[in-house]
Amino acid sequence: MFNSESVAASKTFCSLPFIHQEKQFNNRHHICCYNNTLQSDNEEDNSFQSFNSQKMFKIRNDMLAGEKPKECSFCYNQEEQGLVSPRQRETAGWMASKNFSDAMLQNISKFLNNENIFPLSYDLRYSNTCTLKCRMCNAYSSSSINAENKKLLQVWPDKFQYVDNPRINHEISLDKNIKKIYLAGGEPLIEPYNLIFLKKLAETNPEVQLLINTSLNHLSAEFEQVLASFKNLLFVVSIDGIDKLNSYIRHGSNWEAIIKNLERVKQHQVMFNTTTSLYNIMDIPDIVHYFKENYPNYCHCIFLVNNEDELFIENLPLELRHELIQNLELILQDAPICTVVGLNNIVNTLRINNYNPERFAKFVKYTKILDNIRGESILDIQPKYKNYFME
Predict the structure, then answer these.
(1) Domain for residue 379, yes or no?
(2) How many CB atoms lie within 10 A of CB 47?
(3) How would DSSP label each residue in 267-320?
(4) What is the DSSP letter of 167?
(5) What is residue 44's predicted lDDT score, i.e. its pLDDT?
(6) Residue 210 to residue 270: CA distance in whole angstroms
(7) Strand (E) positions, the chain?
(8) Do 268 and 134 have their domain in common?
(9) Does 121 score more than 90 pLDDT?
(10) pTM of the model
(11) Which residues share a beta bridge with 125?
């Protein structure tokens, strides 16, 4: 019998394969957003077939038997490096609420009884429509990057790829069994399909835990009105620097608009997500201090960029690490609890002699190309890189 004690003791179990489905723009169904792995046995499988596929059957059985499925190696590799992985964070989140944990354990029980199971949680991506060109993002997740990449195809073909702008109107059952909905994009607060979906969801399941991952650069009155219907709404606001740094990393972002929109959503729950890359690694202590001083009641979580290898923080030159680690350790002493995990992950990563000069060279090349086409300079926001960017 697999129960809450088994979950707590397991080194292999993850809640997501038993309760979650990520529905992407191309009508493909993924296990989660962390490792970009299909749930389905065949790309043509529908949502139900994907969630109950032979692949998922094996992954679930392996986890329950104490084995590590290869499809989930991203999390297990992080844990081997002493980092707290998404597997651990997601599972702890589901176990923190009795309502959620009971529903998850019921799905596990049904699976063990050879019954078909249905998602309790969805990650919905309706389109890549976005006004921003974030440096750690890609054409598939931003229509603005896609348009820019069309101009850069010949500059670095393996890096700057152009795709058909994806868009889909997902259909899911909006019954009361669904515990959690996560909307991302693109920018979910400018996508019309999201507005249509939210109106239906507000009528059928206003108690659902609704998370919206947004840059919060845009918030129309129509979106604001329908979002007021939800009782458990959390804005996950992605901010990777303060003012000019955020605008550099998230090109097209408007700092004043973000601050004004934060005031407009203060009746809801709000948390901040900072994705740490080579662009903002040196500023993490200042970013943590800013949120602690200005938004002490909001959780601030820190993650490591995981999808563009030239931006990984392990590419930081060794000579820049000592002072940074000291500053991070100082701020760790009184950092909010929700920030501590991310800070520890950064410190643990930087303490390893893992510098990759080839990846750092790619970082310099990538940055120079974007700076040139956008009329920007990394040295305006990160002067400590001067020796690496001067000809």
Answers:
(1) no
(2) 20
(3) TSEEEEEEEE-TTTGGGHHHHHHHHHHH-TTSEEEEEE--S-GGG-GGGS-GGG
(4) B
(5) 87
(6) 12
(7) 20-23, 29-30, 121-125, 133-134, 180-184, 209-214, 232-238, 250-251, 269-276, 299-304
(8) yes
(9) yes
(10) 0.94
(11) 184
Residue 217 contacts residue 132 (beta carbons within 8 Å) = yes
Same domain, residue pair 48 and 15: yes
- Give the pLDDT band (50/70/90) at residue 307: confident
Q: What is the CATH number of the domain that holds 226?
A: 3.20.20.70
**Same domain for 178 and 104:** no
163 and 48, same structural domain? no
Tokens, residue 350: 């930087």
Number of residues that make up the chain: 391
Place of tokens 């709404």: 233
Q: With both helix axes pointing from N to C terminus, report the angle between 86-95 and 73-80 in degrees, rounded to the nearest 10.
A: 100
Whether 371 is covered by a domain: the verdict is no
Strands across the sheet with 269-276, in order? 29-30, 20-23, 121-125, 180-184, 209-214, 232-238, 269-276, 299-304
CB atoms under 10 Å from CB of 71, counted, come to: 18
Q: Which two tokens stand for residue 353?
A: 């002699």
Cα atoms found within 13 Å of the Cα of residue 275, Cβ hemisphere only: 18
